From TrEMBL:
Organism, as annotated: Neptuniibacter caesariensis
GO biological process: response to antibiotic
Transmembrane segments: 21-41, 61-79, 100-123, 135-156, 168-190, 196-215, 236-257, 269-291, 312-334, 354-379, 391-410, 416-435
Keywords: Antibiotic resistance, Cell membrane, Membrane, Transmembrane, Transmembrane helix, Transport
GO cellular component: plasma membrane
Matching InterPro entries: MATE_fam, MATE_MepA-like, MATE_MepA_subfamily, MdtK-like
Lineage summary: Bacteria, Pseudomonadati, Pseudomonadota, Gammaproteobacteria, Oceanospirillales
Protein name from the UniProt record: Multidrug export protein MepA
NCBIfam families per the UniProt record, alphabetical: matE
Length: 446
């Protein structure tokens, strides 16, 4: 029995942990590396370096969103084909997905490097933050093609029945990022330039860790450049459009947040938002990891028409998300000074004050954001892209923009801080309504 066939026959709880543990450990490693990135920058370079990296987040979101759109859509399509025993179709989807991602990543990298000054101005950098932002972005752009193709390979590794390999690649990347941060920032004193090189090199290592699984004698998927019916790729992109919309919307919302914070509170406000972003990123990466672990399982079970097992996987995932939410909220409510102290020096008085207020009002977002993310992932795996997009776009674009533009009018700065928690609550209500109509049994019978 091969690894893919075991997805349909293993007991549910061991199956859940076989896929979720590598995914969560890998994403925790990535999240930890990102947080440590912030710790090194905040303590050895300064709060303005944190703000500059935060200004680059919308650009990262665009690259990541495009990667997810094709990778997640391609993965669940390939998973459904594997569940139905059609390996040739799965290989074709893999080939088309990787070709598209390689072409898009190279094109965007060249475009952004040519128009870099205009790009940095669009991201909202003021005179104080412009040089730092330019230094950071100009370096990591060169590594984006390796990041996009490497991260896409990790999705196909999972659906190919090798979740441990995907987790190992993320772990290697994260450890390399931490070690190189220490070397470049602390030991060599390269500042924000060192952070950019550390991140870029760690991206490359993820790619080179995964590529052997696809070029060995018996590859997980067989790549062929020349394909027929490239229109299939449109279906994959459509199925992954919610993930793209979510990331693009997050990028736009971050951009809007940066504009609002820099206009109301200056560079210190953007730095405070950067600290909050690191906390949010850590929690969301675990939720995304659980969603990533679910998708190959659910899509394969969809192909085999096993609705009861899908329901059991969803229940186990929900229980783990509740535990995660309680742990993060406890930290934010009872250990806020410790969290702030990780990133900011005592000399950053104004930034610390803003961050403390931000944390005290932001914590309710974690009651709902993980559940919203996994619900969107579920809809994608069940080939319900419009339902998935409705949840994703609501929580990452429509509601945040509306609330960011209206709440501050009535509540001042407090309105800025509570916009995301209110967004997650309203999105959760929408997700529950949509799920009632699209339960596993109902989708499979239809």
């Amino acid at each position: 029995m091969n690894d893919n066939q075991r997805i349909l026959t293993d007991s549910i709880v061991p199956l859940f942990y076989r896929f979720s543990i590598p995914a969560v450990l890998g994403m925790l490693a990535v999240a930890s590396a990102s947080v440590i990135d912030g710790v090194f920058l905040g303590n050895y370079v300064g709060a303005h370096a944190l703000a500059a990296v935060n200004l680059s987040m919308p650009l990262n979101a665009l690259f990541f969103g495009l990667t997810l759109m094709f990778s997640v859509g391609g993965m669940v399509t390939a998973g459904k084909a594997l569940g139905a025993g059609d390996h040739a179709s799965a290989d074709a989807i893999f080939s088309k997905t990787m070709t598209a991602i390689a072409g898009i990543s190279l094109s965007l990298t060249i475009l952004f490097l040519v128009f870099l000054p205009s790009l940095i101005g669009l991201l909202g950098a003021n005179d104080e933050l412009y040089p730092l932002t330019e230094t950071y972005i100009s370096i990591f752009l060169y590594f984006q093609p390796l990041f996009m193709t490497g991260f896409s390979l990790s999705y196909f590794v999972r659906v190919g029945g090798k979740p441990n390999l995907a987790g190992i690649s993320l772990l290697i990347s994260a450890i390399a990022n931490i070690v190189l941060d220490w070397l470049f920032i602390v030991q060599l004193g390269w500042g924000i330039e060192g952070a950019a090189w550390a991140t870029g090199i760690s991206y490359a290592l993820m790619f080179f860790t995964l590529i052997p699984a696809f070029i060995k004698h018996s590859p997980l998927f067989k790549y062929q450049l020349f394909q027929k019916r490239w229109s299939d790729l449109k279906g994959c992109a459509l199925n992954g459009v919610s993930e793209f919309s979510n990331e693009l919307s997050v990028g736009f919302t971050t951009l809007l947040f940066n504009w609002v914070m820099i206009s109301r509170l200056g560079s210190e406000g953007v730095a405070a938002f950067a600290v909050i972003n690191y906390i949010v990123f850590f929690g969301l990466m675990v939720a995304y990891a659980l969603g990533d672990a679910l998708q190959p399982i659910i899509s394969t079970h969809l192909g085999a028409k096993l609705s009861r097992r899908i329901e059991q996987i969803l229940l186990i995932t929900t229980l783990h998300l509740i535990v995660l939410a309680v742990a993060i909220i406890w930290m934010m409510l009872f250990e806020p000074e410790w969290i702030i102290g990780l990133f900011l020096d005592q000399g950053d008085g104004k930034t610390i004050e803003v961050t403390r207020l931000f944390i005290s009002l932001f914590w309710p977002a974690f009651l709902f954001n993980g559940l919203n993310i996994v619900c969107s992932a579920y809809f994608t795996a069940m080939h319900k892209p419009f339902h998935s997009a409705a949840v994703a776009i609501s929580r990452s674009l429509v509601l945040p923009v509306i609330l960011l533009l209206t709440l501050p009018i009535f509540l001042g700065d407090t309105g800025v801080f509570i916009a995301i928690p209110v967004t997650e609550l309203l999105t959760f209500i929408l997700a529950c309504i949509l799920f009632r109509e699209q339960k596993p049994a109902a989708v499979i019978i239809a």
